[in-house]
Amino acid sequence: MPSRLGPPPPAPAAVRPRENHEQAERLALSAATVRGAHLATAEVPGWLAERRRAHVFRVERIPLAELDAWSAEPGTGNLVHRSGRFFTVEGMHVVEHDGPAGDGPRRDWQQPVIRQPEVGILGILAKEIGGVLHFLMQAKMEPGNPNLLQLSPTVQATRSNYTRAHGGTDVRLVDHFVRPDPDRVIVDVLQSEQGSWFFRKSNRNMIVETADAVPELPDFCWLTLGQIAELLHRDLLVNMNARTVLSCAPYPDTSPGALLSDAQLLSWFTGERSRRDVRAHRIPLATVRGWKRGPEAIEHEDGRYFRVAAVAVRGTNREVAGWTQPLIEPVGTGVAAFLVREIGGVEHVLVQARAEGGFLDTVELAPTVQCTPGNHAHLPPADRPPFLDAVLAAPPSRIRYQALHSEEGGRFLGATSRYLAVDAEGTAAALDPPPGYMWATPAQLRALTRHGHYLNVEARTLLACLNAVAARSRGGM
Fold first, then answer.
1. Is this structure's pTM higher than 0.85?
2. Class level of CATH domain 262-280+332-474
3. Is there a contact between 171 and 162 (Cβ–Cβ < 8 Å)?
4. Separation of alpha carbons 43 and 29, rounded Å
């Protein structure tokens, strides 16, 4: 008599630990290793200079009318590319309420903004060499960098780039990140870009490990996290995209506690998001009030904030050797600083819940101070950003970290900020900070980088710098 039992049931699916503690320990080992298998740390600046000499790099300002393949869209005045790809420069109108919308606006402004709806890839390839994780960094030219060429991720590409909308060459090594092996992913998270200059822009921040052979390429080198930490203490060397990816690395949490539990910190932040009402919408660039268009740039009528300029670019190691494009050029050098203090023997930093018009979700956690001081120099002290004067007046003995870093060189021209970690001793930064500010540990911030749109890009840079300070204080192998 034939069996009616049918095929055997499938075997139960295997389960795995939700946290990869071994991976965190491997990252910690890499952070403690300052002797790399490829280059000595002291050799990296010379290697970058050699790569700069190996190529032709040239960036020249041009009038807006000389932008090739870009034009002012009829009816809106928006700067658009003839392909319909890459990005556009449009207008943005922002109204911010501190509480219910019926209370009246607290701030209301209009400005130009970059709209780039496609999600780019910022990916760093990792590989174990000699028992230590190394990370493949690229010497990449960006037209807006003050020194043009800096240390960048393995892959730094918009969708238009890696789908070759520009008609150029393939983006090297991008296949590791477009369809990564799930068992090899260390970091994969959408993170925001500058909400003051981008409209709801996100990039995919990734670290992916490989066991395969990787071709030796002249513009790439393998470095440990400890080596990169040392390089983060140098001005204008590690670019913004590398810093944001590295800030997301899941180091082990060795701190014994925090002023607020994780649930309390998230509750405070959720309350700030719920309390603030920020409404931003796109408007035609031609209608933005308070801004004027001249032959060389679009700029604010008071000469503050930033301008929209145009450049012609030549870079022989890029996917396209020459092009023109608009760039946002800030007026003045920015300051981004964490006030730092020990609470119960544990290092904490003072974060603010900061609203920016281009954010996807109201507010994100930002440094204690984040501004361009020159934009506020005309204001009385009471109207200047909180803690700005305390940071600017800090003596060297209270500065725990300081370096000049550039912002995203593919969209911003000469955008640099002085990044600092400043001891809070002697300031008005009390344990009970003013509304909109809260103390958190670096470990708590690292945990939040596993999720998108919690820490803004300036806070992520500072977190990467704090990781570098911690790595230096531990010493290295």
1. yes
2. alpha beta
3. yes
4. 21
